[in-house]
Amino acid sequence: MRFLKEPPAYDLTYNDVFMVPGRSEVTSRLGVDLTSTDGVGTPLPLVVANMTAISGRRMAETVARRGGIAVIPQDLPTAVVAEQVRKVKGSHPVFDTAVSVAPDTTLAETLSLLPKRNHGHAVVIDADSRVLGTLSEADASGVDPFSQARDVMTTDLLTVTEDTEPEKVFEQLTARHQELALVVDTENVLQGVLTRKGCLRSTLYSPALDPDGRLMIAAAVGINGDVAQRAERLLQSGVDVLVVDTAHGHQAKMLDSLKAVAAVRDQAQRRIPVVAGNVVSAGGTRELIDAGADVVKVGVGPGAMCTTRMMTGVGRPQFSAVLDCAETARAAGKAIWADGGVRYPRDVALALAAGAGSVMIGSWFAGTLESTGALKVSPDGRRYKESFGMASARAVKMRTASAGEFERARAGLFEEGISTSRMYLDPQRPGVEDLIDAIVAGVRSSCTYAGAGNLTEFAERAVVGVQSAAGFAEGAPLHSSW
Ligand SMILES: NC(=O)C1=CN([C@@H]2O[C@H](COP(=O)(O)OP(=O)(O)OC[C@H]3O[C@@H](n4cnc5c(N)ncnc54)[C@H](OP(=O)(O)O)[C@@H]3O)[C@@H](O)[C@H]2O)C=CC1
Ligand SMILES: Nc1nc2c(ncn2[C@@H]2O[C@H](COP(=O)(O)O)[C@@H](O)[C@H]2O)c(=O)[nH]1
C-alpha cells in the first residue's frame, strides 16, 4: 500500500482514509481470490470475534461454511467448547443445518425454533430422520399454536440428493416457487437444506476446512489460570486455531502465557496456528512474534463495545495501528488480524489494504440470527439481540464466577466495556451470511479497483488518500432528498 500524498504526522482510522482506483487488468470481480494471507489460510479473510454474545456453534458453522472462522470465547468451560467443536465438525460443509422437529411437536414450539436459522423453515422428521414435511411461518398463519407439526406441515417438497448441482436445485426451486430444498440420502434421511440463496452461495464461496474436510473452528485462551491445560484440552477437542487474548497484549503475563500455549502447540500432531493480542505497536507485535505468535491480533479501543479509550486515553486509531503492525509482522514472515471497529464493508477492504491477513468482526455480527443471544423485539417492532463487551462488568462477573463475592465486585469496578447494547437485525440482511455477502461484494470490488487479483496484490497495489470528515460524509448514500 502507498499513500497518495505524504502521510500526515498523526494516526488515522478507517473513516479518515479512502482508496484511489488504479489501472486494472482484472476483468471480473468474480475472478478475485480472497484467500486470507495470514497463514491460517481460510478461503475468506473474516474472523468472528471471541465475544460471548456473538460467537457460538451456529455462528462458527455458518461462517466456516462461507470460508471464514469463528473464535469461541475464553470464558466458556473446555467441556462446553468441546461440545461446540463436535457439532461444528459434524456439520455439512455445504448444506445448511436443518431445524428439525418430531411430528408431534407443537406449532408454538416449532415457531420458537425458526429464528435459530436464516432459512426460516423447520423440517419434520420421523424417528429415523426421514423427511415427512416442512413448516414455515407462512404455514402457521391462522392455525392454533397447540396444533402438532404433522397437521400443519407442507408435504409438497423438493428433495434432492447430495450430488445435485446447486444451479439445478436453484432452477427447480424457482420453477416451483419454493424457497427450500431438502437434501436427502437414498433412504430419504435428511442431510441438510439448501435455499435459493444457499445455491448461489455454494458457487461463490469455499468452506474453511481442516485436513479431514471438516469445518474449521478456533477457540480463545485468556492469560489467567492454567493456560497450558486449557490449550491442551482445546486441541484435544479438535480446535484448529488457538487465540491467546487479553486487553493489554504487550505485558509480561501475556508473554509467559503465549510461550506456554506455543509449547503446547509445538507438541501437536497437526499444524496449529497461534494468534495473540491485542497490541497496536511495532514493539508489541515483535515481542508477541518472538514469544511464539504466528498471527498478532491488532486493535486497542476501536471496538463498538469498548470504553477503553474513554476510560484510559489509551489505544490507537485502527488504520494506522494495522498498517504499522502489519509491516512489522510481514518483515518477520508473520501476519496480523485487524480486530475491531469494522462497521461497513469498506472498513474490511481498508484493513486488508493496510496489510491485515484477516479482519475480525464482533458487534456487527451480534445483530444476526446466528449470534448466540436470544432474539428480542423492541416496542417499535424491530428485532434485536443484546450484546456486551468482554471487559464489561457483566462479562467480568461471569468470568470471575468461581471467585468470592468481594473479589467479583472489586473486579467489576475495572470495567472497560459496555454491559448492555442493542444490536438491531437489518430486516434486509438478518443472517450473518447476508452481511458476509455484502462484505465480500465490497472487498472483491475494491480489489478490482486496485487492479488486484488476490489479497497479496491488493496490499501491494492499494493507493490510500487521507480525507476530511466532509470527504467521508460525501460517500454516504442518501435515502431521501436533502
Ligand atoms: N481490544 C481491546 O481494545 C480490548 C479488548 N478487551 C477484550 O476483553 C476481554 C477481557 O480481557 P481482559 O480485561 O484483559 O481480561 P483477562 O481476564 O484476560 O485478564 C487480564 C489480566 O491482565 C491484567 N492486566 C494488567 N493490565 C491490564 C489492563 N490494562 N487491562 C486489563 N487487564 C490488565 C489483569 O490483572 P488486574 O485485573 O489485576 O489488573 C488480569 O490479570 C478480552 O477478550 C479482550 O480482548 C478488553 C479491553 C480492551
Ligand atoms: N475495550 C474493549 N474492547 C472489547 C470489549 N469486548 C470486545 N472488545 C474488543 O472489540 C473487538 C470487536 O470489535 P467490534 O467493533 O467488531 O465489536 C473484540 O475482538 C475485542 O478486541 C470490551 O468490553 N472492551
UniProtKB/TrEMBL annotation:
Gene3D superfamilies named in the record: Aldolase class I
Keyword list, A-Z: CBS domain, NAD, NADP, Oxidoreductase, Potassium, Purine salvage, Repeat
Sections of the chain in a coiled coil: none
Cofactor requirements of the protein: a monovalent cation
HAMAP family, per the entry: GMPR_GuaB1
Chain ranges of the CBS domain: 94-152, 153-209
Pfam families recorded: CBS, IMPDH
Free-text function comment from the UniProt entry: Involved in the purine-salvage pathway. Catalyzes the NADPH-dependent conversion of GMP to IMP.
Database matches in PANTHER family: GMP REDUCTASE (PTHR43170:SF5)
Single GO biological process annotation from the record: IMP salvage
Protein family according to the UniProt entry: Belongs to the IMPDH/GMPR family. GuaB1 subfamily.
EC number: 1.7.1.7
Organism lineage string: Bacteria, Bacillati, Actinomycetota, Actinomycetes, Nakamurellales
Recorded superkingdom: Bacteria
One annotated Gene Ontology cellular component of this protein: cytosol
Reactions catalysed: IMP + NH4(+) + NADP(+) = GMP + NADPH + 2 H(+)
GO molecular function: GMP reductase activity; IMP dehydrogenase activity
Pathway note: Purine metabolism; IMP biosynthesis via salvage pathway
Binding site for NADP(+): D245, T246, A247, G299, V300, G301
Family matches, as SUPFAM superfamilies: CBS-domain pair (SSF54631), Inosine monophosphate dehydrogenase (IMPDH) (SSF51412)
Full protein name: GMP reductase
Binding locations of K(+): G301, G303, C306
InterPro entries associated with the record: Aldolase_TIM (IPR013785), CBS_dom (IPR000644), CBS_dom_sf (IPR046342), GMP_reductase (IPR050139), GUAB1 (IPR005991), IMP_DH (IPR005990), IMP_DH_GMPRt (IPR001093)
Organism this protein belongs to: Nakamurella aerolata
